[in-house]
Amino acid sequence: MVETMKIQGRHKSEQGFTLIELMVVILIIGVLMGLAIPNFISAIKAAKESVLKEDLHIMRNAIDSYTMDKQKAPQSLQDLVDSGYLKAIPVDPLTRASDSWVVDQSDALHSIDQSEPGIDDVHSGDQEAGSDGQPYSTW
Fold this sequence. Notes:
Blueprint: H1 2-8, H2 19-70, H3 77-82, E1 102-106, E2 118-123
Antiparallel strand pairs: 1-2
């Protein structure tokens, strides 16, 4: 009963926030979100590009090592996995699929001892432009 008397004893101006105060708080939150979201999106893009560069570097080294060791180029990325040069075909961070890699095959032999042509390069299957303005498929 004492609590009900305290609640009834409050003035009307002490019962809550005004509409103006709520709108100011919402405006401040909106401005902060407007500043934070573009930075967050660019950080995610930079992280995906970093992962793509690392995956391409690893796969290209594996292709070169396979070619030098076996005296022939791999015929598919799965050959690199089967021979132990890669644990698994990495997932393309941009397309989110491991089967979207675009491989370049040529008839050129890269070594005197190489007996048959095959894969000599790999690229992302994504056609969007990276932060440097070049399409990811040309990295």
